[in-house]
Amino acid sequence: MKIETPNIPNDLPLKNFNDIFYEEDPELELCEIQDSVFEDETLPKVRLYRMTLKNCRFTNTDFSSIDLTDVRFENCDFSNARMSGASIHRTVFKNCKLLGVDFTEARFGNVVFQDSLLNLASFGNSKLEKVNMQESTLERADFYDCTFKKVEFHSCSLNHASFESTSLKGVDISTSAFDAISVSIPDLKGCKVSTNQAIQFSALLGIVIVD
Fold first, then answer.
1. Which string of b and e fits 156-171 if b means at least 16 CB within 10 Å?
2. What is the rounded distance in angstroms from the CA atom of residue 193 to the CA atom of residue 41?
3. Which residues does UniProt assign to the signal peptide (predicted)?
4. Which of 105, 110, 136, 174 could form a disulfide with 116 if both were Cys (CB 3.0 to 4.6 A apart)?
5. The domain spanning residue 168 has which CATH number?
């Protein structure tokens, strides 16, 4: 699956995330931010555009309805941040901590989560199109009533993740690992799984496999 990468210029000027308070609107663009700390804040409807953020901390911050386009996050901590109603497009999260993040009712398009921690993250009622989860941990993540289109999980940990009321048709989880996940049999139709995973799912059907 080909995903559009963020369109970010080289040699961007350095800024601090708190510079956003000096803007007429809560937005930053065409810059690079490093080592900023912006925790326990409330700043809804932020717009970040064509920029890079590295080694930043945004824990417990309310970013409701945030708008991200052409953004790259590296080594950033969003633990317990609120990003409900977000619009996230052509964005990469690399080696980021997103423990318990609220992504409910968000819209994702051409997004990559790489080597990131998303345990207990909530994606309920979100739409994900062209989203690639790569070597990330999503234990007990909640994907309730989501719409998936061209979504892939590559070498991820999905233990106890929940996909209640979410169709996995066309979704590839064959290289990912889990002891148990929550999903209904009808929603599994068309999901791409490995042989071992097929054996695991057979238990949902009450099938006993005998060698």
1. bbbbbbbbeebbbeeb
2. 41
3. none
4. 136
5. 2.160.20.80
* Total-model pTM: 0.94
User: What's the domain count of the chain?
Assistant: 1
Question: Where residue 22 falls among pLDDT bands split at 50, 70, 90?
Answer: confident
- Write down how long the chain is: 211
Q: Judge whether 206 and 186 are in contact, CB under 8 Å.
A: no
Kindly tell me if the per-residue pLDDT of 45 is higher than 60: yes
Does the pLDDT value for residue 123 go beyond 60? Answer: yes
Please report, in angstroms and rounded to a whole number, the separation of the first and last CA atoms in the chain. Answer: 36
Query: Is the residue at 3 inside a domain?
Result: no
Spatial distance between the Cα atoms of 185 and 104, rounded to a whole number of angstroms: 24
Best CA proximity match to 138, nearest among 111, 120, 163:
120
pLDDT in tens, 90-110: 999 999 999 999 999 999 999
pLDDT at residue 117 is higher than 60: yes
**Residue 29 counted as domain residue:** no
CA pair distance 14, 52, nearest whole angstrom:
10
Q: What is the pLDDT of residue 198?
A: 86
- Give the structural domain span for 145: 36-205
Query: CA-CA distance, 44 to 66, in Å (whole number)?
Result: 6
